[in-house]
Amino acid sequence: MFAPSSAKGHTMHAVILAGGKGTRLKPYTTILPKPLMPIGDLPILEVVLRQLKARGFEKVTVAIGYLAELLQAFFQDGARLGLQIRYSLEDTPLGTAAPLKLIGDLPDHFLMMNGDILTTLNFRDFMDFHLNRNTIMTIASYRRTVKIDFGVIEADSNGCVEKYIEKPPLDYRVSMGIYALRADALAYIPENRYFDLPDLVKALLAAGQKISLYPFDGYWLDIGRPDDYALAVEEFETRRSLFLPGGQSS
């Protein structure tokens, strides 16, 4: 049932999480859901949807909650963008993984992502990678360098200094908030309970399931705070062609 395949020739389905309150972007998100915040002349979510369409996705389910009616009114059924958009409403906040349990008819493999990401990731390539690996989940990852503003000391068991490192940079692979899942991953999500993506990842690992890592070194920005939002606006205006494949215009 879950044999390795390719995104080519298959109807590709994406689930977009757009139900959060965006509290870190207040006061902007007091009247607008974060995915409708504009970068240039387009809402953040519309940039994502156009990218998905350009990479061959046909169906999108948008998980909504906070100010849901505004998202539904703006994007409607997706015909304007050449997509089939449907909505899954959560009455109470369920976290980032539990909303999947409310969505019926998901295919054997699907993409899931946050609706407030600015990236140049090729979603088709990502899905092909996932299908070829045939693991229960694939996580898109990005390298982040964290600068430590202190001298780091390493000591031995006797309390004697062995090493002193002045302001070392630490490199990590972080989640981009973009995932590919096999449908049987849903069995690890509890019913009617708050459950985040990190909880699902931990549950899968505890059960011995294999999760693939997709390394990406292009452009990625999680639009979570006001300074991130300001940067997203600047980047989109100056590098628009990078984010809208095929030179799409508004």
Automatic annotation (TrEMBL):
The family database entries (InterPro entries) matched by this protein are listed as: Mannose-1P_guanyltransferase (IPR050486), NTP_transferase_dom (IPR005835), Nucleotide-diphossugar_trans (IPR029044)
Which SUPFAM superfamilies does this UniProt record tie to the protein?
Nucleotide-diphospho-sugar transferases
> Where does the Nucleotidyl transferase domain lie?
14-235
Q: Which Pfam families match?
A: NTP_transferase (PF00483)
What is the protein's name according to its record? Nucleoside-diphosphate-sugar pyrophosphorylase
Top-level taxonomy: Bacteria, Pseudomonadati, Thermodesulfobacteriota, Syntrophobacteria, Syntrophobacterales
